[in-house]
Structure formats: structure tokens, C-alpha cells
Specification:
Layout lengths: L6 H7 L10 E3 L7 H6 L6 E3 L3 E4 L5 E4 L6 E3 L2 H9 L6 E2 L2 H7 L10 E2 L8 H5 L5 E6 L5 H6 L6 E5 L6 H16 L2 H24 L6 E10 L2 E7 L4 H8 L3 E2 L16 H4 L6 E4 L9 H5 L3 H5 L1 H4 L3 E3 L10 H16 L1
Parallel strand pairs: 5-6, 5-8, 6-7, 8-9, 10-12, 10-13, 13-14
Antiparallel strand pairs: 1-2, 3-4, 10-11
Helix pairs in contact: 7-8, 8-14, 9-14
Protein name: Iron complex transport system substrate-binding protein
Pfam family, one: Peripla_BP_2
Organism: Nocardioides albus
Length: about 350
Amino acid sequence: MFRRTTTTAALTAAGALMLAACGQTTTAADSGDSEKKASAGCEGVATSTGPVSLTDSFGNKVELDKPAERVAVLEWQQTEDLLTLCVDPVAVADGEGFRTWDSAEKLPKSVTEVGTRGEPNLETLFGTNPDLIVVEAYTAEDEILEQLAEYDVPVLATKGADAKDPVGNMVTTFEMIAEATGREEQADKVVGELEDKIAASKKAVADAGAAGTEFVYYDGWVDGANVAIRPFGQGSLIGELGEELGLKNAWTGKVDPAYGLGQTDIEGMTTLGEATFFHTGTVDPAGDVNAELAKNKVWTSIPAVSEGRDHAFPAGIWTFGGPRSAEQVLDAYVDLLTK
């Protein structure tokens, strides 16, 4: 089971995340599609009302007179997190891409688009009058942080990924955003549901006799005449979730220190023996890598492929998402291994 960092535990153990609240109110969901929010369990969500003081992932203090309400967000996991916390962002980067790759939450059509995740349009972003901007960074010197520092709007910088503890980092990011928006009670509820889902999913895998199954999750892209494959190895969020269920990640090749992602080609995947494969079911608008793989005789001779053990996850599961995406990942593993 992953180590859960609740708001209370974080305050007590490290003093790194500090929240001062004068009270709580129980409010209806923020502006947006009320029917969608009610169906997502957002009716009457409790919201803190007092000032907020916390430290972000890179040691920067974030001070707010009250929990943030008009939040702009520049990465998909954090967009999903806001929606799970029943906060509709006022601005997002690449909302159309989010709607393609992340089905865990529904992004309202009314949200303002501010360009790409890598190069947001800051003029449009600040034109939405946000009281907080949530970004994803990898170091305290990231260019986006330097750009935003020129403006007088608080910025919450969250750590993009951490291969040392991918599930813990995902939960910490979610809870940090909950503190900034006064939605700690909702965060505790959601994280508790994720813990329960992991336990139930692990039991289902064991009951089906699938515990110990060697697996590799991968995605890829078409690069000219070649196909590049990206295995999700040790330290990847989706790989760690599989191992939480009692599975064994078979990819032992080199991975990056943040996301736990490897890189290989078709021949590299032939070394994985009898491992079961899983892959994204979302078709990349830039090219259908799985259609290209199906044309390759070396690929189709790999045991997992030739024996029908190369399973597509349902479309729209974001492999770098928050707690609700993680629940979708767990459901996919269980459905595909126990059917």
C-alpha cells in the first residue's frame, strides 16, 4: 500500500505544508455545469474560508487571503485534480488535448484556453484574472516559474513526477492543491476511496490467480518510417500501480529518474519473454502506433502479441493523472486480467 500523506500528517511530520483556516463552510460547487458536478459527487462540498499559507514542492511560500477560487492550471494532472476537488479552472493549457487523453473528469467547455502546456499564452492567462496559477515543474529554476514570477499572482509549483515514489507524489500533489483551494475534506474522501480501490483490486487479482503476472505497459509513436516504443518501467506511476496489485514489472531497462519511462524499439520488446503487455487505448491524433505495430512481423511474433496477451486499456485513461485516473488504471488491470 502506498504511503498516504494526509494534510494533518504533513503538518505534523514536516511542517512543510501549513494551512491556517478560520473555519469551514459547506457550499455548492463552484460555477460550471452543475449537473456534471452533482453527478461527480460535488454537491455540497465543504470549503475552508480562512487564509492559506503553504509551501510548494520547491520550497516557495504561497500566501492567500482565502482559498483560491479562480485557478488557472497549466498541466493535465493538476487540471484533473482541480475538477476532482470540485473546482472548475478559469483557464487551462491544451484543454482539447485533456479531453482526448483524460476522461477521469469532464472539463467544462466554458474554460478559457491559454495555448499549449509547454508555451502558454500569458496574456490570455492573466486576462482571466486568476487568484492562483498551478504549474508543474521539475526544478525551482524552471523557465515557466521565472516567467510567472514577473506577475503579481500567487503560483503553486507542483513536482512533475518522482520515480522514487510515483504514487506518493501523485497524492501529495493532489492534497497540496486541495489545501490551496480549501478542499481538504474532499481530498481526504478521494484518497480514501483510492486506498480502498487498491485493496479491492489487489484481492480481485489474487482471487483470479493472476498475482505475480509479469507485465509491461507501453505506449509509443510513429517517427518517420520507424516506431518508437516507451515502456513504463520501475518508478512509473502506471507500473507502480500494477505492482501494488501484486504484478511484476518486467521492464528492467534504463528509465528516466522522474517518470520511470524507458525507450526502445520493436526488437527491444522481444526480450521480455512471456510478459503480458498492456498499452494505451487512446489513439494519438498524430499517428496510430498500434496500427503500425500490427504490420510488423517481428512484433506479431512476440508471445504476448501472438497469444492475445497484448491488451489495450480503455481510451481516455491518462497515465500521468491524479487519483481518479489511478482508479481507472486499477479497473483496467483488473478487468483485463480477470476476464
